[in-house]
Design a protein that fits this description.
8-stranded mixed sheet, Rossmann fold, alpha/beta
Amino acid sequence: MNNSQKLFILYLRTKLKLISCLSVKWAARIAFKIFTTPYRKSNKQKPSIFDSANSIELNVEGQTIMGYCWNSSSTQKILIVHGFESRAYNFESYISPLIDKGLCVYAMDGKAHGLSDGKTITLPEYIMMFQELEKKVGQFDGFIAHSFGGLAVCLYQEQLNQADSRLVLIAPATETSTSLTLFCAFLKLDEKIKTAIYQLIENASGNSADYYSLNRIIPKLENKILWIHDEDDEITPISDLAELLLKKQENVEFMITKGLGHRRIYKDRAVMEKVLNFIKP
């Protein structure tokens, strides 16, 4: 973290502390906007494989969502779903191997990411993108999803019950409550603001933050699932999936790695090989 980033974080902490003295609800609204804003933008140059893609453009609640498609003549479709503060470009190494398997590959930039419109993104907004995309191109045979994208895909599958779609979850955001706890600790928010954020989520969505939980969703899914997680992941800690690991659900296969963390994991060669063999045996 450089000095300018440290100063910005100090500014946010001070701002929220001062606002909370006037109104805890106001501070919670600002904190939640920060929570849903991808501040770190990927500066990755356009990989050459994207030059051969067909562009996809969706209108989701007035926002333009951009994406890419390869090998559109294939009847078997896979969607690559990136995580928070990421973009489609980051999954370039998966595209050619998936095409070689005879698959049609889609990769989208979520709202507020990559070339898509927007400043913030929430789980319901990510799910709306899936809905609009499947309306346009039909049901996907599989999803490869990282982090925040993994939770969004599972929520979507819970709603639709598309049991024949294979799901690859790489370091998925397992518990929203954990993400909020880490966020509040990072910005040094007190319990009153944290409680107000939870209430804000419930008022806006009709569900508590605990509803957005893979420990709740996964036992309901019948999809074949490959879940890959690293022991040293500090963003989505492996302790959050202890309950699921113990259950040994028949349709869920786990691959536990070490030393890859949260962001390097999907770029690892062994992980990629496992994903490719699973998504189309």
